[in-house]
Specification:
The structure holds two protein chains of two kinds. By secondary structure, chain A is an alpha+beta fold. Chain A has helices at 15-46, 63-92, 198-207, 214-224, 227-230, 262-270, 293-305, 311-316, and strands at residues 99-106, 109-113, 119-121, 123-127, 131-138, 143-147, 152-156, 162-167, 172-178, 191-196, 249-251, 257-259. Chain A is elongated, with a radius of gyration of 27 Å. In chain B, helix 4 packs antiparallel against helix 6 (156-183) and helix 11 (348-371) packs antiparallel against helix 13.
């Protein structure tokens, strides 16, 4: 669909399928629009009133017809449902090998940080042929990171980390739009994604000024915010050890069990009293308002790298 | 259809005259006229806001309005059109006027509450207008948090109170209709002899009384968070912004059916009358209204596919949304089949019927694109959504309202309007509408987001936007035309006979305009609805 002006550029691994799904539903719809229009027009002309006192035939209905036009739309809509649900499911679950990018929306700009530490604003360079997962946050109100050429879009929800992913397939420069209304300069909250050959991307990264990778920055924050005074690698701290916490199942003081994902870590930092780990006192201060969305993502990126402290490692140290 | 005793002519439009007699009336017909005048004013106001939007978008740069002004224009266009025109349109005007007559009642069950509901509507409208003049409103009609609760510097609280108050007008109208249909039917007017318009109003009323309190509470919570900093939706105060979306759409998706179900009821009346034939599959059409009303409460999450809602919740909302397509298709095919072997007139109501069939079909089918989760990722929050819901609300609901207004105008006013004018209006609206909104489907697939004051300066984007704006000017002409020939008809129109279209139904057996208490003696119904008989059997009054 590259050269048809009624389609956006087709630049990601799902673009072709998205267009096919669109064309499939368009074809079904066109069939029914033509059918209904033809039936009504033909009947209106063929059975036009020829005499002022004329009335229509005494027909009340037909069970066979009713069942037919109940069943056919049902089956067709279920085909659409299954195809659409399958595509959505794949787009909602980032592949495990994806590289992680961090994007934060604020009125009215997009801040992007690469895993190598390079940052940019209202631009996002990405390599083609590589799965890219985006962790999306918002500093203020709802935004939505929309890249029509990749056929992907996700809300940036304040108070949450959301994810999206894509694999760019075609080098080029494409639109980024904020698609969720966010106030005065909503239509100015735009940018461009620059999809590049992998070697060009590496060269671009090398030329960029890194201010530390997200993990490095997270590690620094972990000590400047004094997280490390309570959260120690072993079990001697006043807070639970965070080594190996990511992805594990945590037993809470109120008896619940939760899986420690990004949003659990986020909540435990910002609103530390919400979920207290069993065996610990609720003494941690809430960091709401003290940590920016970007710093939060860096902290989480760092915590995710903390592997369970194996006894052998402890001996070495 | 029924035996209606000979009437003396003492029209509801006759004495008592004077402003007080109208403003204090308890006559459902006069209240319908009060609503007609009020919502027509708001339709014009909402239309002016739309004109401001379309003018801005003829060029890619945001060069006509400031961004804040543009944001206020689309917000107020939505608020005015939805809360002050579309929701009351068919129920409060055509329903108020026709429903009691159709079931053989002298009035609604609670005439004073009926008048009260108009006053509440006016009070809500005045509060909302106060918001317009004291800083405006720039949240979009959806009031999404936390923008509306912490960020917007416009008169959100005032507008929220306006919407809150107006909601009670809907609730009272719905309550009135439900009680009236249960308690006031004439002898012999069994449930399955009810005109399908009454079935549709009944289903709509259920949605109104069950859904409206939720939006009332929701906008009040927004006002509370703004004014008192209660943490409900703002995460910085411990709230959840997505909670707002759940509450908002729990009402606002059913609200779509508040707008379109009455239109479907009007269509059933019109299709039967212009074809002079029993509505094909009466029972299926009646129950499809109830099915749509019930399913409509279970689909709100399809607005939240990319809002971080759980995938599995999304799957359930998607499949239920698909199911709504079934009763909608059932209705459409039944209307088409009603014309089969009918005696189809080519008088003006038919033009509105044909226009509705075309536009509503496109509107309904494009809903399937958005219900398809994978595709919705690309389409949501774009102009595709804007085009889709305008096909349903303008192409469907307003087309039906206009059709109904033409069909019932002779009954309501006792005057015939210009047939040529009405046909021209229907054609202009149909053509103008498609030019305005079809290009927006294409813009949506290209990725143009909603609520954009400026857009990328690419040729195809501007071509489609200019087409849309040009179409809107044709559409505006189509809507202005009736203002002239309807007004003209009031003064110079031919007197309307009781039954100008040769239709069945109690409403066509009372004089035009009807007497104050509709029937001098209680009518008795002994036939099903739409029982068209060859002339020698027909009993026509007037």
């Amino acid at each position: 669909m590259q050269n048809i002006p009624l389609f956006p550029p087709s630049a990601s691994s799902v673009a072709m399928e998205m267009d096919l799904l669109y064309l499939f539903i368009t074809a079904v719809s066109a069939f029914f629009v033509v059918l209904v229009a033809a039936l009504t027009l033909i009947f209106a002309v063929k059975y036009r009133r020829r005499h002022p006192d004329e009335v229509g035939a005494d027909i009340h209905g037909s069970l066979v017809l009713e069942l037919t036009w109940t069943f056919i739309p049902f089956v067709l809509s279920m085909v659409m449902f299954v195809w659409g649900a399958d595509l959505f499911y794949r787009l909602a679950r980032p592949p495990a090998d994806a590289m992680d990018m961090f994007v934060v929306g604020k009125q009215w700009m997009w801040k992007v940080q690469h895993p190598a530490g390079v940052r940019e604003i209202n631009q996002m360079h990405v390599p083609i042929g590589r799965n890219v997962r985006i962790f999306l946050g918002s500093e203020d109100v709802l935004h939505d990171y929309s890249i029509p050429a990749f056929r992907v879009k996700m809300d940036a929800v304040p108070g949450k980390i959301t994810t999206m992913w894509f694999k760019a397939t075609q080098a080029g420069t494409y639109h980024i739009f904020c698609a969720e209304y966010c106030g005065t300069k909503h239509s100015g909250m735009i940018g461009e994604v620059i999809a590049m050959e992998p070697q060009d991307y590496e060269a671009w990264l090398a030329g960029g000024r890194s201010t530390g990778t997200p993990v490095e920055n997270g590690e620094r924050l972990f000590s400047t915010l004094s997280c490390n005074t309570c959260h120690k690698p072993d079990s001697t701290g006043r807070g639970p050890s965070l080594h190996g916490v990511f992805g594990s199942t945590v037993q809470l003081a109120d008896g619940r069990k939760v899986v420690a994902d990004e949003n659990y870590l986020r909540e435990s930092i910002m609103n530390s009293q919400a979920k207290v780990v069993q065996g610990f006192q609720p003494i941690m201060p809430a960091f709401q308002g003290m940590v920016s969305e970007e710093n939060l993502m860096q902290l989480i990126a760092y915590i995710k790298t903390l592997k369970p402290a194996a006894p052998a490692d402890a001996v070495k140290k | 259809m029924a035996t209606v005793p000979q009437q003396e002519n003492h029209s509801y439009l006759g004495a008592p005259y004077g402003l007080a007699a109208w403003l204090l009336t308890k006559d459902h017909k006069r209240i319908a006229i009060l609503y007609l005048i009020s919502i027509t004013i708001f339709f014009a106001v909402g239309g002016l806001f739309a004109a401001g939007i379309r003018l801005e978008l003829t060029t890619p740069q945001g060069d006509l309005w400031t961004p804040d002004m543009y944001n206020k224009l689309f917000t107020l266009h939505g608020v005015v059109m939805i809360f002050f025109f579309l929701i009351p349109s068919i129920p409060a005007v055509l329903g108020n006027f026709m429903l009691p007559i159709m079931i053989g009642a002298k009035d609604l069950a609670f005439p004073r509450i009926n008048l009260l509901s108009w006053y509440i509507y006016v009070a809500g409208a005045i509060i909302t207008l106060a918001a317009v003049f004291s800083g405006g409103l720039d949240t979009g009609w959806t009031f999404y948090t936390p923008y509306s609760s912490i960020s917007s510097e416009t008169a959100v609280t005032t507008a929220a109170i306006g919407v809150f108050v107006t909601g009670f007008s809907s609730i009272l109208t719905g309550l009135n209709f439900i009680v009236t249909v249960h308690r006031m039917r004439a002898p012999g007017m069994t449930w399955f002899r009810l005109p399908l318009f009454v079935w549709a109003q009944y289903a709509t009323s259920l949605v109104m009384i069950l859904g409206t309190p939720v939006i009332a509470i929701t906008v009040l919570l927004v006002a509370a968070e703004r004014a008192l900093h209660l943490g409900i939706f703002d995460p910085k105060l411990g709230g959840d912004p997505v909670l707002f979306q759940h509450l908002f759409w729990f009402y606002s998706h059913p609200a779509v059916y508040i707008m379109i179900l009455p239109g479907m009821g009007v269509m059933s009346e019109l299709v039967a009358a212009v074809s002079r034939k029993q509505v094909f599959g009466y029972g299926f059409v009646a129950f499809s209204s109830l099915a749509i009303a019930i399913l409509g409460f279970l689909v709100w999450g399809h607005h939240l596919f990319v809002s971080s809602q759980s995938i599995y919740a999304g799957l359930v909302f998607s499949i239920i949304t698909m199911l709504v397509a079934v009763p909608s298709a059932v209705k459409t095919f039944n209307w088409a089949a009603t014309m089969y072997k009918g005696s189809v007139t080519w008088e003006s109501p038919t033009y509105w019927v044909l226009g509705f069939m075309g536009l509503f079909t496109i509107g309904g089918l494009t809903g399937l694109f958005l219900a398809t989760m994978g595709l919705d990722i690309h389409l949501t929050d774009t102009y595709f959504v804007v085009a889709h819901f305008h096909y349903i609300m303008v192409g469907g609901a307003i087309m039906a309202y206009m059709g109904g207004l033409h069909f019932y105008w002779p009954k309501m006013t006792g005057k015939m309007f210009s047939e040529a004018g009405a046909k021209a209006s229907a054609i202009l609206v149909f053509v103008g509408f498609n030019f305005t909104f079809f290009p927006q489907f294409l813009l949506g697939y290209l990725g143009m987001p909603r609520r954009y004051h400026a857009y990328p300066a690419e040729p195809i984007w501007q071509v489609l936007n200019v087409l849309s704006s040009a179409g809107a000017s044709i559409l505006a002409l189509g809507y202005l035309l009736p203002a002239f020939y309807f007004t003209y008809s009031l003064f110079k129109g031919k007197a309307a006979p009781a039954n100008p279209w040769g239709a069945t139904g109690l409403e066509w057996q009372v004089p035009s305009p009807p007497p104050t208490f509709n029937f001098d003696e209680d009518p008795v119904v002994n036939e099903p609805a739409y029982h068209y008989k060859p002339r020698h059997e027909v009993h026509v009054n007037g």
